[in-house]
Amino acid sequence: MKRPREESTSKKSVHHGPDAKRARVAESGEWTEFKDPCGLSQPVLETLALLGFTQMTPVQAATIPLFLKRKDVIVEAVTGSGKTLAFVVPILEMLLRREQPLSRNEVGAIIISPTRELASQTFTVLTPFLRHLESHENLPKLTSFLLTGGHRPVDQDLALLREEGTNIIVATPGRLDDILERNGKNEILKLGELEVLVMDEADRLLSLGFSSTLAKILARLPKQRRTGLFSATVTDALTELSRTGLRNPARVVVKVADAQGERKTPAELDVMWVRAEHADRMAAVVRWLSEGCISEWEDQQQDGTTDETSVTSPTSPPPPPPPPQKSILYLSTCAHVDFLRHVLAKVPQLSSFSLHFLHGRMPHSGRTRTLSQFTLAPAPALLVATDVAARGLDIPSVDAVAQLDPPMDPAQFAHRCGRAGRQGRQGRAAVFLAEAEDAYSEFLGVRKVPVRRVCFQPSSFAKLRDELGGIFARVATTDRAVHEAGQRAFVAWCRAYSEHQLSYIFRLKDVEVVDMAKAWGLLKFPKMSGLPMKSSGSFQPPFSNLRLSSLAYGDPVREKARQKKLEERTKASVASASAVSSSGCTGKPSAKNAHPKPGGAWSLQKERKERRKERREKKGRKREAIAKARANGGDGKTKGRATSESKDDGSSGDENEWEELQREEREAKKAKRAKKEKLVTEDGDDSDSSIGELS
Ligand SMILES: Nc1ncnc2c1ncn2[C@@H]1O[C@H](COP(=O)(O)OP(=O)(O)OP(=O)(O)O)[C@@H](O)[C@H]1O
Hints:
Elements: E1 6-9, H1 20-26, H2 42-50, H3 58-68, E2 73-77, H4 83-96, E3 109-112, H5 116-134, E4 144-147, H6 154-164, E5 168-171, H7 173-182, E6 196-200, H8 202-207, H9 211-220, E7 226-231, H10 237-245, E8 250-258, E9 261-263, E10 269-275, H11 281-291, E11 326-330, H12 334-343, E12 354-358, H13 364-376, E13 381-385, E14 400-403, H14 412-417, E15 427-433, H15 439-446, E16 452-454, H16 459-478, H17 480-498, H18 513-519, H19 556-583, H20 604-631, H21 644-648, H22 657-678
Parallel strand pairs: 1-8, 2-7, 2-8, 3-5, 3-6, 4-5, 6-7, 10-15, 10-16, 11-13, 11-14, 12-13, 14-15
Antiparallel strand pairs: 8-9
Helix pairs in contact: 2-5, 3-4, 4-5, 7-9, 11-16, 12-17, 16-17, 17-22
Bound molecules: adenosine-5'-triphosphate (ATP).
Adenosine-5'-triphosphate (ATP) binds next to helix 4.
């Protein structure tokens, strides 16, 4: 494959300091440098100047002329390097240069993004260009349309398109496919004049399972078009797509190099890893956010000192970096985000923070609102999110990213970090690794994502960890919903961790789960059968005299419903007990209900044995049923599962949270399958993991 131009920014140190942005852009050339046939038109140059884009970035300098020479392109460039303008500018040029201007409903360009958020962001980049072009009377009028699920019902989209038409579509794959299918024989939109197709974050489009949707879309588009694949990480999976969708593509790779060699993260981004056991991580994050305390964690490893001794010397304190102003904290599950939503506001160290929470299970409107609130929030602000916020989001004021857990998909690591240190600004990213997870830092190095180790005094977190555990536990005692959210989040976390793609590094059996449960302020240790973990035997509930069955929901309506259910259950069991006694039943009592009388035929030991046997059989049956259902392509649904109420009031026997999670997982998988099969109104929502709780 031909490499038309391979850019390489100079050493990292060159880009540090307040002039970083200017220095970097200055290297990349003037917008006016292209000569015909690639020279940019006056109105486009004017808009670039109006928007303050005075110079090109390397990826723009390399990609724009190729596109304008009518080449297909595969573009790989680090996060925040300006890929969006690298396709928006040539799209506009191609459409403006047409001999025959596009009519109202002739589509000249389609941009596909994996998520609604990214599609809206690209649409926002495009809009000011179109507005400015409108002011030129002699130019053809170009219109654009945002097509994503959750934005409007599909029928409304169709009606609007019929009425107004469009020339440029920015879409997520599901909704676009839906519209193209309903478009029939070009009744509403005419695709014959399509000049350009762009697939942004192309590897993500594939990893989200859109390959068959993309294939259907490609099949409906004219072959005589230019196609571009853009991403910060180009994976092998893209090769297949490029084979079917692109013709003899040129490849643009914008590399970053520092003293250590090539890297896949921007030079302005300081990526560090911090040794922190799981139980300590929230404390570490809170200190970082509130004190910018990574300055204390100077790397003393080279001179052989240990973590414990690596405290800043009182006589020569290092210049403390200021606390981060706008940060994103990445978690691996939606349930964990929901749990922190309940408790984080009560942490005194974060009282000045504006806190925001985002995950892929939130409704579209909530996601959009959260993002814009976070974007506009005054500093300090924190967004707690799953990987739904890992790709492409461009919030320039984000200066720090913390990853409480390394991402399930290793390719996501660089994308998460890349939300900070964008376009020449300095940024910091930290990931926390337990001792057993050390190998991950080497793994990242191999993947060309260099991470610098920073050390700290582990004991410095102990106090805050206990303090946070206490706060979370107290919040849980005020509302059953918080207690349940904590239980759910913990189970989901254990499950996600046990299914990590890098299972040779991340092993649940190495995690001190009891310490973690305490640090999370759990009121009890959730029962989780079937997961390979350290014993939970030593877990001491934080409040020994708290009866969980009496813990009420903060929401009176919900609590009333729970009380009603409890009452009904009590009545039902009284009724069944009296039915048994009045029938004078002399048969063998069921293992569960039998209460051995002293000296009776049933010894306690015998009863226990019976119970164990029954449980074993029950589990065996359940496993069989699940295996059978899976083999038949079903969802492994079993009968007789407990509701969350029945578990927590302690009346559910051997049903537990694990089963609740299994149920959620089955439902999520089912929903996901249905979503894919129907290719309905939903689009590239990031709720893409194998278990329902993930992002
Ligand atoms: N030529 C330029 N001059 C100055 N700023 C620019 C230029 N081009 C893009 N930017 C700014 O750089 C930021 C990053 O751009 P963009 O979102 O296109 O990056 P990206 O490469 O797509 O990143 P990601 O891979 O994370 O999606 C944006 O805020 C954008 O406005």
